[in-house]
Amino acid sequence: MDDKEAIELRHSVRNYIDRDIEEDKIEALQKFIDVQNEESGLKIQLVSNDKDAFVGLNVHYGTFDNVHSYIALIGKTSCVDLEERAGYYGQKCVLEAQKLGLNSCWIALTFNKRSVIDSCKILKGEKLVCIVAIGYGKTSGVMHNSKTVQEVSNIGDNSPEWFKEGVKYALKAPTARNMQRFYLEQTGDNTVRLTNLGGEYSKIDIGIVKLHFEIGAGKENFNWDDKA
């Protein structure tokens, strides 16, 4: 399974069956995370047996069931693009989990933060950005309605195929409350600008969207225009 196939198959899942993730899958995902940490400078951590992370909550943003494992996205507070970087590399881990046959869900609020902090190693000068639940879903989730390509980009009839594919996969990126508050512009023959339109957790969303666009368009076909 490649990244595009993983994107097509992956949907947010909140309810899981009470089943431990096999040790070989934990090891494979941990190895992948180690590589991402080396590349990103983040301190992403995999927690595979925390049954208290969703216990005793006053839930406002939806309930979760049988979440025992998760990926904690952690980085240095001094990192100026910490949230965006967490989104980008966190989603890489999400797609790797999908390839291993696991379901997932991005979570920013609905978890027991104290339990997660106690289960992780967070040093002074580091911050927990959010977590991603992983496990075996009771279902594989469903695709939610999304905006049109015209609403999120300056796509046109003469746009190159790589740009069209990039926008297509950007629209498949999970975003907070499915708001999709971003805009993609082809600003030159091979340059693209990604604009953050603001909103709750939008910096994390932008990192996820950026990865999806790169997967769809092919990183070799364009450069990011950083004048947003």
3D structure, described in words:
By secondary structure, this protein is α+β, with helices and mostly antiparallel strands. It contains 7 helices and 7 strands; from the N terminus they run ααββαβαβααββαβ. The protein has helices at 3-9, 23-40, 82-99, 113-119, 149-152, 161-170, 202-217, and strands at residues 45-47, 69-76, 103-107, 126-135, 182-188, 191-196, 223-224. It has a 4-stranded antiparallel sheet with strand order 1-2-4-3, with helices on both faces. Strands 5-6-7 form a 3-stranded mixed sheet, with helices on one face. α6 runs antiparallel to α7. The longest helix is centred in the N-terminal third of the chain and has 18 residues, at 23-40. The protein starts with a helix and ends with a strand. 41% of the residues are buried. The mean pLDDT is 92.
Radius of gyration: 17 Å
Percent helix range: 25-40%
Give, in order, the helices and strands.
HHEEHEHEHHEEHE
**Globular, elongated, flat, extended or rod-shaped: what is the shape?**
globular
Task: Count up the helices.
Answer: 7
Ranges where pLDDT stays below 50 over 5 or more residues in a row are none
Across the major sheet, the strand order is: 1-2-4-3
> In this structure, how is the largest beta sheet organized?
4 strands, antiparallel
Mean model confidence by pLDDT: 92
Straight-line distance between termini: 34 Å
Share of β-strand residues: 15-25%
- Strand tally is 7
Secondary structure class reads alpha+beta
